[in-house]
Amino acid sequence: MASVANLKHAFGYRTGVSGSIGFFDDQTIVYPCGSNLVLYNIEQRTQKFITGLEKSEGMTALTISPNRRYIALAEKTLDKPVVSVYDLQALRKKKSLHSLDVHSSEFVSIAFSPDSKYLAVQGGSPDWNLTYWSWEKPKQLASIKTSSSNTVKQVSFSPCDCTLICVVGADIFRFYRYGENSLKTFGLSKVEPHNFLSHTWIDGEKIVVGTDDGRWLLIENGEPKVEYNISTINEENESDQKNRDTVCTKNSITALTSTSKGLAVASSSGIVYWFEHINADNLHQQRRKNETSVMSTNMRTTTNQRSVSSTISLKEEYQLLGSVYIPKDLTVDTNSEFNSGQIITQLQISPSDEFLIATTNTHQLYQFNLNNIDTNMKGGELVTRNSHINNSVKEQRSLNEKAIFVPVSQSFHNGQILGMDVCIRKPLIATCSTDRTVRIWNFETNDLDLNKQFAEEVFSVALHPTGLFILVGFSDKLRFMNILIDDLRVFHEFTIRGCRECVFSNGGHLIAAVNGNVIQIYSTTTFDNLLNLKGHNGKIRSIIWSDDDHKLISCGMDGAVYEWDTQNGTRINENVLKSCSYTSVTVSQDGKVVYAVGSDKTLREINDSQIVHEIQSPDNLLTTVTISRSGRMLFCGCQNGQIRSYQMPLTDHSDWQDYIGHCQSVTKMKMASFDEYLITVSMDCSLMIWRIQDREARSTKTDKEIGWMEEILITKSDLEEKNSIMTELKTRVEELKIENEYQLRLKDMNYNERIKELTEKFIQEMETLKTKNQLLKTEKERNEVHYQNQLTELNEQHNQQLQHIESLSNQKLINEYDKYNELQNIAQSKEVEYEKQLHNIEVTNERLLNETIESYETKINDKLQIIDNLTNELKEQTNEYELSRRLIEEDADREILEIKIKYEKRLHIEHDLNTQLKSESSIMKKKFASLQKEIDEYKDEIKKVNVEVQKSNTTIRNLEKDIQSLRKELQERDETIQDKEKRISDLKKKNQELEKFKYVLDYKIKELKKQIEPRENDIKNYKEQIQEMEVELQRFNKQNDQLEINISELKQKYKSVENELKLERQSTRDIESLVRRLKTDLFNCVGFIQEPKQLKASILALYKKHIHEDMGIHSPLAVDATADADIQKEFSRQRQHLERSVIGLRQKLARDTEMHRSDYVRIMQVNINSLIFFTHILIILIEVEALQLGDSYPINGDY
């Protein structure tokens, strides 16, 4: 059984997924990372994961249901795209949706219905099919083609209707409604075609869409109501004209989202504009506040308003509350301080409308607290025109602080991660990427400890075992840096260009770095180059130290795996396989077994230069390999981003287990924290931390006694600066304490005085209240006596009234008793009468029943009589037929049988009629009851008909209202037609005036042509003069060259003379020193004038010292040395002369080019001015000709 790996934490965010951010609850967001969905809790900083499909080729879209219980994920596969629905609480798959109508390779957008029961799935090219699903069954209900060739960007449901779907894209804005098992186009859209990038619903009837030219439109029932252009905001923000043009052309609305608080609009420049909806109730009051400012801004921005088409509804207004900026990305070069270099791809607001989450194309996640939007930023103006937006932005720019997004957790890499290393004594991971950053992560706290941006490209990184130093490979050098608390400081540099692989030894005393196809080993104490390991013929892709640092294992693209002895630099073992280019290598703890992977999809186990085991990987290319310290776990990284765990020990048929992680090739893989974690990085800019277990699913036990190092490095200057800051802050605190105590004393004094004043005031008030209370008491006593008297009087009156009411009530009771007796007698008489009526009814019913029975019995007797008569006739006929029976026996028998059957039928019918008549008497009684029921049913139907009539009346009234509105619209259109006719007449008048003006212009054109001819002659003369000046300039240049040559020769002569003078001065100084020494020696000899022997010896010594040495011929070596010195001096003199001449020529060339450039610019300016003049005249002529032809072009009044 292979080892187990569970994903613990993932750093990174995957771009290119539609709807790639969502909220599970107020504190948990869902976003893609690699091939997983991450559920990240912002408060607790924990993660949960939902893995994608094993055979997936990439995520394309996702969405969260409105009830926040499910998430739908669209993925590419080898056959057809698949939509998987997952339960966010159980983190399990619920359903998979496969469509047979979709022939595209991906789904570009998906959306849940408001009740979370249906899914709208938009397919990609080439068919662009929209499918409507009931995902719980799962069943495809309908499909329709939304586009022929244009790109569809987004699809969504109406928040109030599960059957209404909106689709936007390039020149696409349509509504579709599901009904009768099909999707059909709904409504008539009056929106002009644009490249729509995003949209969001305001309510069931209003929707906001964004375009690629910086505009967003509010659409109600398919008709645009309000249109805004945010490009003018960026124009005001930009101070430079070039930057302004760039921003205007690239600015677009990339994301939209709405809440009950307002509308968030994201632009491609990395700015989110927050708009507040102003209702019609408080609109009038807001307009009155801004009446003065609006009138002034309208006067200033009339021309700007002409260029922007804006349809303003009187009932809908929006106000710009503020702008939120994405932090500037240092890895992207932008000339504008307002352009962050990041494009916002998605916006999402939390369910409580408190947080706004934004995603960018640089793999970053940002958040902003909507409660922090400064209401002062809005400027108190309505954004109904571009001028108002500009004024609001000006007020925002006047503020010192801007509202800025902050990362959700930490910033991620924005490029392929090329290098990675793990520290031994600290829980640190170092990574480097193509975004020119080096980042240090903490896998215990799951946080980013340090992020350093560099100006050069970074290729490799290595961490010292202590975690205090780091090696970083740049394009020019390999740098050894100190890891400080918040910075990386260069300590030493190695002259290795573009180092792709570098690693510290396990002891930290050695460095191994790759320089081309050579491995160089340096000491970390002296930084000396100890060894150069040569042997590879191709690029070296991986190096690793053995556990005791006595061996170094390397592999390369030449198919070689070498083991090196790091003591003497010799090659111990080797294995070369030309058909494979190795990419990664690892070694067991004892240093005997080597594992390598390469380009032939094979994992090899090498021992003593021999391949022991080979395991093929037919379905995937292995890119990296690593083994645990215990040797019980072996992991490989794959090209598709999966992590593969092999069963140990290896055999030729070992099993493996794949784990879904990254979405692109795994570039590096390391074990960390004593085989407790596996660290992987990928080309998809993600870093993942896996918790690993052995094949018995037991976690590795770490040594609890060995803790992590907590020491850090800090420079002395930084420490002194921090200490000085601390002392300053301490003194400041003491000063603030003294100041606060003084302020407290002053406040105490003020409060004591205030208390005295209040106590005196309250005492006075208490005295006045006491007097008032005494007065109120006396008044209360007087009122009590008065009200007591009134109460006794009222009691007497009430007793009298009560006696009177009792007498009246007794009389009424007697009257009512008499009435009761009368009514009882009447009731008894009525009862007797009704009993008589019932008896009469029963008698009549019996009589009628007897009559009906008698009538039916008479009918039966009549029928029996008829039967008897018929039998008699039958007998007579039989007697008649007996005579001819002998002749026609067969015919008679047949006729007799027919007649017998016929009359038997008649007899049977008559018998049935008899029984039927008997039953009719009983049926009549039942009909009475049934008729009564039918009457009740008809009454109910009448009620229903009345309700339908009311409904039809309401529809008629609504239709009448529609007819009135249409009539009003016809009247308005008639008025517009009349206005256009008036304008046509005005244009005709203007045309006549322009014809007159044309005559004037013709005359002016003739005069201008006359003026142009002498200018052309002047231009010719200027050209000839320029040519003459160029010839003269060449002559001057030649003279200058000759003068410079003469000057350089004179300088050389001067230098040679100066050098000879120096030599002569040196020789004179030497001779003078020799004379001084000779004098001193002679003076010493004079001291022995009385001693001949010593005098002789001193004279001989003086001779040997001075005369013999000075007059002797110098040795050949000395002569050669002096000659070489002279040659060297002459060579340096000539070199200096050539360098000076080159510098002079360069300066001369620069002056000539500058002169020619200024002349060229002056001539070009003249030509440009003349071209502008000619084009202006041509424009005037074209407008005049157009007016003559009757074309309705817009006419500017300024010429």
From TrEMBL:
Extent of the WD repeats: 410-451, 533-574, 659-700
Superkingdom classification of source: Eukaryota
Record SUPFAM superfamilies: Tropomyosin, WD40 repeat-like
Coiled-coil ranges (or none): 777-887, 921-1067
Protein known as: EML-like second beta-propeller domain-containing protein
InterPro entries from the UniProt entry: Beta-prop_EML-like_2nd, CFA-57, WD40/YVTN_repeat-like_dom_sf, WD40_repeat_CS, WD40_repeat_dom_sf, WD40_rpt
Organism annotation: Schistosoma mekongi
Domain EML-like second beta-propeller: 419-692
A Pfam family it matches: WD40
Keyword hit for Repeat: yes
Keywords from the named record: Coiled coil, Repeat, WD repeat
